[in-house]
Amino acid sequence: MKKGHGGCGGPGDEEAGKTGMLMKRWGILRGEQDNLLKDLKESAVSCEKLGKKYGVSRQAIYAFSKSQEIKRPLKPRGHQTKECRLCQKLIQISKKPHSEFISFQTIRKETGTSRGKYYYHLQTLRNGGLVNEKFGRLRSIRAEKAYVIYTLRIDSRTAQ
Ligand SMILES: [Zn+2]
């Protein structure tokens, strides 16, 4: 295998057998399997870095994640919440009153983002505790409209 290019590199030899056997073959410690699975599923840390952490090659990490059919989270290059315009915009929207009742269609429209991008940035913000857990989860535009009407009534009542 060629060295020196980024990412996880090419195909490993994955003839999926029993996980235990695979772990042994790749030199990943049994006890660390769960931690590795978690890292692969929940972080965008590169296979190379994970390999260093678990004391195996990045090819082994790659082959393992393939055999487990793990979908790695996408990592936009050099993403920094503070410098990310989308994240800042999402935070701004989330600070509006009753923002948990803004549907994600509306949020995506306002920010002009694709679905995948939207979820990635939103998840990053949730993980960092920068937006409410409920923010951006509402799927129904109908529910949003109903809620807007409802809150407008409440607000006009309390204003009197
Ligand atoms: Zn962002």
List keywords for this structure.
160 residues, mainly alpha, 0% strand, disordered N terminus, binds zinc ion
Protein described:
It is built from eight helices and no strands. With 160 residues, the chain is mainly α.
Could you tell me how far the N terminus lies from the C terminus, measured between alpha carbons in angstroms? 74 Å
Count of β-strands = 0
Bound molecules: zinc ion
Helix content: 40-55%
| Number of structural domains | 2
String of helices and strands? HHHHHHHH
Total helical segments = 8
The biggest beta sheet, please? none
Q: What share of the residues does DSSP label as strand, in percent?
A: under 5%
Shape: elongated
**CA-based gyration radius:** 22 Å
Class from secondary-structure proportions: mainly alpha
| Quaternary structure type | single chain
Uncertain ranges? 1-7, 9-18
Overall average pLDDT: 80
